[in-house]
Design a protein that fits this description.
By secondary structure, the protein is mostly helical. It has one domain. The chain has 9 helices and 6 strands. A hairpin with a 2-residue loop joins β2 and β3. α1 crosses α2 and α2 crosses α5. About 40% of the residues are buried.
Length: about 190
């Protein structure tokens, strides 16, 4: 069970991360770095507020945890990839902002958390971030085995426990279920 806030929010969060890290005319960020920073910020938001920023299905991969929907948007492999290509473009290993998607779906806290995460890890390269996320207990519990599937789902319960919110697990899971039901009413995926 996972929160599902929709792809527009993911695209907005990605754009905030890229803009916070790059002040050039064509803002961009390496794909792996982007996915790691998004995962870290999302995880910290869960720990600090009881709710993640993007809340999509996290998976454990060889290079650490990431959000599968964010990865699919960046790769352009979602069924609605053309919609998001208006805002983001991947060239090689870099993700560029083509058009500003705005921040209508992000709270002030979420924008600040994303920006603060970029600032905190500014001096770390993508492989440093991989090593940092390899220390996360939820990745250790679910890391893919050699020769097995490339990605293994990370249960939300594992992340809740890893960030020290076991005492709130019932409430967080109830919030996830309520978000899923609300999304169904508005025709969003769950």
């Amino acid at each position: 069970m996972y929160f599902q806030f929709g792809p527009q929010k993911i695209v907005e969060a990605i754009a905030v991360l890229i803009r916070a890290s790059d002040s050039c005319d064509h803002p961009h960020m390496g794909c792996l770095r982007l996915l790691k920073l998004l995962y870290i910020a999302d995880r910290e938001s869960l720990r600090e507020t009881g709710s993640p920023i993007v809340g999509t299905k996290p998976v454990a991969m060889k290079d650490g945890p990431l959000h599968s929907d964010a990865y699919d948007i960046v790769k352009g492999s979602r069924w609605d990839a053309e919609t998001w290509a208006v805002f983001l473009h991947k060239a090689g290993n870099e993700v560029f902002i083509v058009k500003n998607p705005g921040v209508l779906n992000l709270s002030r806290y979420e924008i600040d958390k994303l920006t603060e995460t970029v600032d905190r890890y500014r001096d770390k390269n993508e492989w440093d971030l991989v090593n940092i996320t390899h220390e996360f207990q939820e990745w250790k519990n679910n890391q893919p085995e050699a020769g097995g599937p490339k990605a293994k789902p990370i249960p939300m319960e594992d992340i809740i426990d890893a960030v020290g919110l076991t005492y709130m697990k019932t409430e967080i899971l109830r919030d996830i279920e309520e978000t899923r039901k609300l999304n169904a009413v508005f025709g969003m995926p769950s």
